[in-house]
Amino acid sequence: MMPKRAITASLLRLNAKAACSATLALVLLPLQLLLLLPDLAVSSPADEHFDYYLQEIRNREHYYAPVQETTDNSLRGRPASRGAISSGQEDLITTAATSTGLRVGASRWPAEVRPAAVIGGANVARERHDLYSIKPVRPAAESPAKRRAGAQGVEVVKAIKKGKDAAKRQTTSKPASPTSCPPLGMESMRIDDFQIHASTISRYGLGAHRGRLNIQAGMLEDDQYDGAWCAGRHDAQQWMEVDARRITNFTGVITQGRNSQQTHAWITSYKVMFSNDSHSWITYQNGADERLFEANHDQDTPVVNELEIAVVARYIRINPITWHGDICMRLEVLGCPMKDSNNYYHRRNEVTTTDNLDFRHHNYKEMRLLMKIVNEKCPNVTRIYNIGKSHEGLKLYAMEISDNPGEHEIGEPEFRYVAGVHGNEALGRELTLFLMEFLCHEYNRGNPRIRRLVEETRIHLLPSVNPDGYEKAYEAGSELSGWTFGRWTRNGIDLNHNFPDLNSVLWDAENRGHVSHGVPNHHLPLPDWFHSRNATVAVETRAVVSWMEKIPFVLGGNLHGGELVVTYPFDAAREPWRAREPSATPDEQIFRWLAFLYASTHRTMTDANRRVCHGQDFTKDEGVINGAEWHAVTGSMGDFSYLHTNCFEVTMELSCDKFPHETELPQEWENNREALLVFLEQVHRGIKGIVTDADGEGIPNAIISVDEINHDVTTASGGDYWRLLNPGEYRVTARKEGFVPAAQNCQVGYDMGATRCNFTLHKTNRQRVRDLAGLFGKSPPRGSSRRFSSQVKRRTSRT
Predict the structure, then answer these.
(1) Which of 157, 392, 421, 789, CA to CA, is 20 to 30 A from 500?
(2) Domain at 364-684: CATH architecture
(3) Ranges of Polar residues compositional bias (predicted)?
């Protein structure tokens, strides 16, 4: 038998062990809860009334207190350890995770989509615990188009240790490679301001919310709309952070410097860090060392760094290590969000489309092929033609959609959408192609709205006025073309500044009192220099001018990108030295209506809660602005169209992002589809009719004037005309040299459909005599018609 003293000692040891176990359990309980909470948060059902914005504000730390400049201006340094965990804590956390049946950083996704490296809430250091064994498979070199479409993934082998004798369990998967993951949406504004944070800021106008790729500073710098995030200190402990709001497979980072005419600042190297809770961070490593990424060499060129191994986490942080000038950065993050059906925040913000369209970017050959496919599907209502060639010899293809393609039908108005004037503004080009597909598909389906449009309107779609510039931007890629690469033609001409300046001719004549006498208020002729071979006029400009003169367009839209606003003429300022000033046309009211109609029908353009794109809030004016009041431009297509032809044209700035990633295209189509259709339907607003002579023959080039609107239009070759007007009653006059003018009151209603106002003009006596004399080969008498009548009376009395 065991002695009593030995039994007592054994009991004391057992009690001590139990006490230690209990104490250890109490110590580990909070750690277990921390590990459990992420899973619980994801698996719990979404509360439809829960405010995720409020949750974020409550849970996040506030970093926006400006910090005073430090005296340490060294350009190099090593960031202080963030969220470092001692070896004892690591062992403790690992033990806690394994004892509760959890795996540190355990994947919550099926094996077939399990990511490369998962950053767990416990943030176990890689160098001490070999939790992840990752084997990259680098894809072969591919063309830019194929890389954008997606490349081969990386093979991942994940081994998790469970104590000393735990068996290694491996799972193999192929997540998306860096090149196949799209931008998260810093540039496109899918990432909200509250998802972006920074260590310090220089001032509010240089806050983290301004650190978006390609963001542009306002015309007045040093205000609340500046061109980057700039840190409030100059040391290597500064950072900018993005919260993806769900677990994301991060694959790369794109950086730019500060957009500024006065300051040159950018980062030259940085480190990347990841976290699941925004408190404990792991730095991306290259073997045993922290990886240092090379960044920018100027302030405007985007530089992409792809991660060799994709990392799965919720937060990503960019830590500048060296810089030029100040620590300033614009940023885009590449990543693939992991599917999570319980994430209500993302489900309620998702926009889907039911239209089965070719949602991708099309280069020149692909555009031509798509247009051919549409033509083959709808051969009876479509026609492909070209209006000329670019500087590099690429044809400027257009598509006509009408029930009688190839012919102008009397009484049927002509409409146009033009895109790609700036080659790097790609969204307008793609929306024009999508509209072709949509109209063809819906016409074949028997959609009554589309059938009525096609049968009553002659629609022209010109998707790319500057194909040379687009090809440059396309080859660079949607995120790497920057703000201006591909904007100009091959010979460096901005097409929207290249049309003849007829504004100056008109305004000079008005100042001299020559309008309606020596100079008309419409259809101003081309200046002589325009026809010179040596004139600085792009071949694309000449092609568009010739196209405008051949077809009697009534209404048009010029699709641009880089903002969310609709502008209307005049684009030029009366005072050429002014950068901006309101410059109204005589048709100010109908132009404002047309602009407002598109802006208000667009899904987000007039949303007062939306993020300002760059440097001006247009929602205050319902998403519209006079072109010259925004920024004055001489030689724009819209001004030229109004002064040289009958066509009223407005400019649509369709998106904050000039060249959105192809994953954004379905949403952009939904944003603009209804607006594109509604604006097209406005070609049937106002008055229309035919001007004929006494024999019923149409009179071409007759002038249609509206009282109190000092801008006229003319009739087409068949005598038909269209005049855009807002609802109201108007006194309208038709005149033609050699005919007696005719006038009548025309009432324009609120219902869609132009009011018909026909005119019959009778020849003057003098014109009749001219016609009779012409029949007998004799010239008509000279002098006024009154003098001629008196001569006829005297001769008659003598006989």
Answers:
(1) 392
(2) 3-Layer(aba) Sandwich (3.40)
(3) 169-179
Confidence of residue 21 (pLDDT cuts 50, 70, 90): low
In CATH terms, are 182-347 and 687-763 the same topology? no
Q: Which two tokens stand for residue 761?
A: 């003009």
Residue 653 annotated as catalytic: yes
**Position 186 pLDDT exceeds 50:** yes
b/e map 151-172, b = 16+ CB within 10 Å: bebbebebebbbeeeeeeeeee
* Domain definitions of the chain by residue range: 182-347, 364-684, 687-763, 766-798
Which residue is catalytic, options 442, 479, 540, 653?
A: 653
Q: Which CATH superfamily is domain 182-347 in?
A: Galactose-binding domain-like (2.60.120.260)
Does domain 687-763 sit in CATH 3.30.465.10? Answer: no
Q: Quick one: which of 718, 667, 724 has its CA closest to 697?
A: 718
Instruction: Share the mean pLDDT of the chain.
Output: 80
Cβ atoms of 132 and 158 within 8 Å: the answer is yes
DSSP symbols for 312-362: EEEEEEEEEEEEESS-EEEEEEEEEEPP-TT-HHHHHH----------S--
> What is the rounded CA–CA span in Å between residue 31 and residue 570?
66
Closest CA to 470 of 380, 556, 366, 550: 366
- pTM reported for the whole predicted model: 0.77
Q: Is 728 left (phi over 0), alpha (psi -120 to 50) or beta?
A: left
Q: Which two tokens stand for residue 772?
A: 């009779």
Q: Which two tokens stand for residue 200?
A: 């310090």
Contact 227, 295 (CB under 8 A): no
Cα 530 from Cα 729, distance rounded (Å) = 40
